[in-house]
Amino acid sequence: MRKQNAKLTWLILILVGVIWQVAAVNRQSVIIERDEVVFDFPNEINFSVQAASDVPITRVELEYGLDVNACATDTTRVVPDNIEFGTTVSANWTWNMRRSGSLPPGARLWYRWRITDEAGDTFISEQTWLTWLDSEHDWRTVSSDNLFIHWYEGDEAFANALLGAGIESQARIEQDIGAEQTKDVNLYIYGSTDDLRDAILFEPGWTGGLAYSNSNIVLIGVSTSNLDWGLATVAHELAHVIIGNSLDSCYASVPTWLNEGLAVYAEGPLDPGSAAILQNAIDDNSVYSVPALSEGFSEHPGRAQVSYAQSYSLTAYLIETYGQEKMRTLLRQFDEGYRYRAAIENTYGITIAEFERDWRAWVGAAPQPVPTEVAVVATVYPTFAPYSGQTVSATVTPLPTPQGGLPASASNDTPPFWQTIMLNLPWLGLICLCLMTASIVIVIPIVLVLRRKANPNSAAPTVINHEGDHNA
Questions:
Q1: Residue 258 — very low, low, confident or very high, per pLDDT cuts 50/70/90?
Q2: Contact, 267 vs 313, CB < 8 A?
Q3: Are residues 192 and 45 in the same domain?
């Protein structure tokens, strides 16, 4: 009997579960009637949806994210404006790249809609993937293992030459610093630097190539007539991606001179033009200090060229003097979160000043000028100066002068003596204030009493009574 009751109980529970699932499916009444995405490359992406439901819809949200190497889940949720809620709704939202910053061409992104009805039930649409890329060019692709070259100008031999440069760069970087690229890398080759700059926003005018290590994307503008430059640039930008991916820590911060120096080093020997630029800077003693090259380069083309060439030389000095294993150790220091000063000292046992001194001697540059020793002066804490006294001069921005001369508040008259006393000797000012108060409270009543005694009739006020007035 107990077994029969147990079986009956299980049957009832299963039946209730099935009914619950059927009810849940029936409640999920949201239907996506239209789901559309429009690219206005490179300016914006417009997402729009039209949905219908048996139950009035009360909320519509768009969720989206990027396919990037990130320390946290890359999900953003936005709520479109100006929605008229009901059983049918239309919503749209625009991702304005001119406000948020441009996505690299080739970036992969996903999106989905989250729709909630009046009953509190939420419908989530299927996740859809998109590739942010212009449709203006007829893109073609060649590949080898995890390298993909996308291009639209030139023949296949042109693309294969660039692909070969990327393969050589991979092997050189792996040999020099032990960094290996395991993820797919997409290189988009624009037919000119003008085409490249038209595809991205807010980049310097001298930009010829860009590397996005967190997206594994490289952009290069190279014409078929400038293949040699393109081969070197493929190696350079690919090195950025590989080095960026070799650092797993979210807190790794490689100084600009090392990041760019390793990328230029991956190209091979310094080209004659860059070598001449560096030598001129050495001869003129216009090379930059290591700290100056650690936080970014100038947007001025001439200064940027010196910065790149000098970064190569600094990196080459470390590799050729201390060996490749030490360079691997240095990169591990950055991966552990050390900043460049501590990382250099931990790896090579020298300070940044000593590193720069040794590098200058290595290239034949003049020693770094020794800063002039400045005498230590105790900090002076300011106090209020008397109005009539002499004050320390300071730069002051005046108010606009009205027509007709200075306002009355701008008079140069010396303040009264009592005001100077009050401001600079507060205790004496307090005594004066007490004496003045005492004179009001004590002296004035005494004077009034004496006056009354001298003229008793004057104490009563004069009252004019009009009640008895009449015409004569």
A1: very high
A2: no
A3: no
Residues 105 and 205 in one domain: no
What's 279's domain CATH number? 1.10.390.10
Q: Is residue 291 part of a domain?
A: yes
- DSSP result, 370-401: PPPP----PPPPP-PPPTTS-------PPPPP
Task: Look up the CATH number of the domain holding residue 38.
Answer: 2.60.40.10
What is the crossing angle of helices 256-267 and 301-322, to 10°? Answer: 80
Distance CA 73, CA 95 (A): 19
Q: Is 203 left (phi over 0), alpha (psi -120 to 50) or beta?
A: beta
| Per-residue model confidence (pLDDT) at position 40 | 95
Query: 226 and 291 in one domain?
Result: yes
Q: How far apart are CA 160 and CA 151, in angstroms?
A: 10
pLDDT of residue 155: 97
Distance, CA of 410 to CA of 396 (rounded, Å): 14
State the amino acid at position 302 in one-letter form.
G
**4: pLDDT strictly greater than 80:** no
423: phi then psi, degrees, rounded to nearest 5: -80, -30
Helix segments in 123-205, DSSP class H: 156-177, 193-199
The whole-angstrom separation of Cα 108 and Cα 76 is: 15
What are the CA-CA distances from residue 393 to residues 191, 299, 390 (Å)? 61, 38, 9
Range of the domain at 254: 140-363
When comparing pLDDT for 460 and 119, which is higher? 119
pLDDT at position 439 is 60
DSSP state letter for 404:
T
Lowest average pLDDT, out of 142-146, 162-166, 204-208, 291-295, goes to 204-208
The residue with tokens 């003229």 is 455
Q: Which has the minimum average pLDDT: 2-6, 194-198, 237-241, 354-358?
A: 2-6
Alpha-carbon span 289 to 275, nearest angstrom: 18
Higher-confidence residue: 459 or 137?
137
261 and 346 belong to one structural domain: yes
Last-in-domain residue among 132, 165, 192 = 132
- The answer to pTM > 0.70 is no
Locate the DSSP E strands across 133-227: 140-144, 147-151, 185-190, 209-212, 217-221
pLDDT digits (tens, 9 = 90+) for 132-171: 999 899 999 999 999 999 999 999 999 999 999 999 988 8
In a domain, 210, yes or no: yes
Q: How many residues does the chain have?
A: 472
Helix (H, G, I), strand (E, B), or coil: what is residue 154? Answer: coil
Domain membership of residue 345 (yes or no) is yes
> Under DSSP, is residue 260 helix (H, G, I), strand (E, B) or coil?
helix
For residues 250 and 102, membership in a common domain is answered with no
